[in-house]
Amino acid sequence: MRVKLLAIILLAFIFGAGLAVLLNPGGVRQWLVGQTSGTALIGGPFSLTDHTGKRVTDKDFRGRLMLVYFGFTYCPDVCPAGLQTIAAALELLGPKARGLTPVFVTVDPERDTPAVLADYLANFNSSIRGLTGSTAEVADMLRAYRVYARKVEDKGSLGAYTFDHSSLIYLMDAEGRYLTHFRYSEPPEALASGLAAHL
Ligand code: NI
Questions:
Q1: How far is the CA of 106 from the centre of ligand 1 (A)?
Q2: Measured in angstroms, how far is the CA atom of residue 37 from the centroid of ligand 1?
C-alpha cells in the first residue's frame, strides 16, 4: 500500500510539473535556473554618444545583431583582453561579421570621452563603436544590462581611480533583445563560432 501511495504522489507531482511547464515555460525555466539568470531582463533603451561624437539610441542599432561589451580605457588587463578576443573573433568571421555591430560601452564616462574612445578602439578593430555619455546616461545603460561597475580608489600609475566591473560580452538580436552572452576570456574561435550560429 505504501508503495502505491508513493507512486500516486510521484505521478501527481510529475503531472503538476508538466502542467506548470505547459502553462508557463519561461517561469519554470527561471525557477529551475534560479535567481542568477534573469537573462531575459538584459537590455533596453539607451541614449548615448558614440566615439565620433554623434548622439545615438538603441533604435540606431536595430536590424543587425549587437555585440555589447562594457569596460573602460584605463583598464589594465581585462578590458583589453576582452576587446582582443572580440577583434580576433571579428577577424575570423570575415565578411559574416557585417551582420553585427560590436559596441564598447564605457563604465568611466568621466575619462572616456568620444575622442579617448576613438583612439583606444582603433588599436583593436575599426568596426567597434565606442559609446559614452553623461554619468546618468551611462548609469541607465549599466542598469539596463545588469552590469556591475564600482569606482575604487587606486594609487597606482594608471590614475587616481579604477573600476571593478563585470565583463560579460552580450549578444543582442536585431530588435535589441538579449540572445546570449560570452565570457571575455573565451577563445576567439569559440566566440566566432558562437556568433556565427546567430548570423
Ligand atoms: Ni576592465
A1: 9
A2: 22
Q: Tell how far the Cα of 139 is from the centroid of ligand 1, in angstroms.
A: 16
Q: Helix H segments across the chain?
A: 2-23, 25-33, 78-93, 114-121, 135-144, 188-196
Q: Tell me the CA–centroid distance for residue 110 and ligand 1, in Å.
A: 15
Grid cell digits, residue 97: 561579421
Question: Ligand 1 centroid to 169 CA: how many Å?
Answer: 12
Question: Quick check: 130 and 50 in contact, CB under 8 A?
Answer: yes
Taking residue 20's Cβ as centre, other Cβ atoms within 10 Å add up to 13
β-strand 100-106 against 129-132: which pairing, if any?
parallel
| pLDDT tens by residue, the chain, 199 residues | 566 665 655 556 555 555 555 555 544 444 444 444 455 689 999 999 999 999 999 999 999 999 999 999 999 889 999 999 999 999 999 999 999 999 999 999 999 999 999 999 999 999 999 999 999 999 999 999 999 999 998 877 667 899 999 999 999 999 999 999 999 999 999 999 999 999 9
First to last CA, the chain: 57
